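I am writing to request your help with a piece of structural work I have in hand. A protein sequence and the structure tokens that stand for its backbone fold form the material at issue. Please examine both parts with care and let me know of anything in them that strikes you as inconsistent. The record follows directly beneath this note.
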Amino acid sequence: MKGEPSYGIYIAVFAALLVLTFITWAVSYRDMGVLNVVIALIIASVKASLVALYFMHLRYEKTRLVFLFAGFPLAILLLIVVGTLSDTLFR
């Protein structure tokens, strides 16, 4: 099919996920205070984006409605994270 990724793309994304997992593991052993959580969340976001874009084929989707359905849970997650952080930071 035209526009579909090759197996090489899948292997590269899988390798990137493995590297990011190793980086997450390595960072967890370093004490950087609050930055540990920030770095872990950034890496997790990049990994989730790679999975959604390539393994769920969102990168090759033309319909905007699919992006709306994919973005709605992200908006809910953002509300939960902001609500939790605002509660814990200002206690």
